[in-house]
Amino acid sequence: MIAEKPLIIIAGPTASGKSALAMKLAKEAGGQIVSADSMQIYRRMDIGTAKPSLSERAEIIHHMIDVIEPCEDYSVGLYRAQADAVIRSLTEQNVVPIVCGGTGLYISSLLFEREYGGGTARDDKYRKALWDAAQNEGGDTVYALLEKEDPESARTLHPNDVKRVIRALEILRLTGRKKSEQKDVLRPPRREYKLFVLSLPREVLYKRINFRVDCMIDNGLIEEVEQLKHEGLTSEHMSMKAIGYAEVLRYLKSELKKDEMINLIKQNSRNYAKRQITYFKAMPGADFVDAETAYNALSKK
């Protein structure tokens, strides 16, 4: 276990107000924010990922944002190594690190060591074939295969997390059972933590999601995706599979009308929020708090 003070985490579904609350808490505690968002790591993908503005980042320092280019691959393991280094550095400087984000796998990687599949054996030949396919044809190739064979597991994994995507396919091949039907083995926590998950009534959350999507369109999401497309990004890149970017790409290819694209982004965002809530409910020690109550309590200080 890492010898640090309990790590504070502000988590929750998309549009629940995590960033605003983390900003207030950071001001109150004299802290800095460590992002746990699998899409905010990409540079120049700002509007569709709801990144904190430059003025907000000037007011409170944010880490683990704008880490890599949209054309580059990334992994949960790399996130954990980099975020751990930031957390250690802040702790040594007596600065309070506040983890904020909605990517459950990123947060879980900071808190636990995981062994997937309950110790299922290996198939090195099959694993190598999948790795070769990922390297030669792109990680999305093996992710698409998992989506076809085990969609439940695919929904819990990030497309960039090629290692676990391959492991899920390997488990299915070896056991005939989906990884989603296997038991995850959670080891003891790597560190002490306080995990606060923001909660809102479903109808309120969905209204906020819909409003956020409308704001993204008004603020230039289509133009942002057009620029990325001009840089050579395509639907084959992992970054462009993100909600918002994938649908706009389809619109730019004339596969969707504008209103269809907007409605699809809203629907996919709502579905993602459901999966986030389910994921956080299963995390040990998660303390669900009303988002508006928490924000108002900090505002009065």
Which features does this protein show?
single chain, Rossmann fold, 2 domains, six-stranded parallel beta sheet, 13 helices
Task: Report on this structure.
By secondary structure, the protein is of the alpha/beta class. The protein has 2 domains: 7-113 and 187-299, Rossmann fold (3-Layer(aba) Sandwich), CATH 3.40.50; 117-183, Orthogonal Bundle (Histone, subunit A). The chain is built from 13 helices and 8 strands. The strands form 2 sheets. It has a 6-stranded parallel beta sheet with strand order 3-2-4-1-7-8, sandwiched between helices. Strands 5-6 form a two-stranded antiparallel ribbon. β2, α2 (54-59) and β3 form a beta-alpha-beta unit. The two termini are 34 Å apart. 38% of the residues are buried.
* CATH architecture descriptor name of the largest domain: 3-Layer(aba) Sandwich
Helix content: 40-55%
**Could you tell me how far the N terminus lies from the C terminus, measured between alpha carbons in angstroms?**
34 Å
Quickly give the structural class.
alpha/beta
Strand order of the largest sheet: 3-2-4-1-7-8
Question: Concise description?
Answer:
The chain has 301 residues and is an alpha/beta fold. It contains 13 helices and eight strands.
Note the topology.
Layout: E1 7-11, H1 18-29, E2 31-35, H2 54-59, E3 62-63, H3 76-92, E4 96-100, H4 104-111, E5 112-115, H5 124-137, H6 139-149, H7 151-156, H8 162-175, E6 185-189, E7 193-199, H9 202-218, H10 221-230, H11 245-252, H12 258-281, E8 286-290, H13 291-299
Parallel strand pairs: 1-4, 1-7, 2-3, 2-4, 7-8
Antiparallel strand pairs: 5-6
Helix pairs in contact: 1-13, 3-4, 5-6, 5-8, 6-8, 9-12, 10-11, 11-12
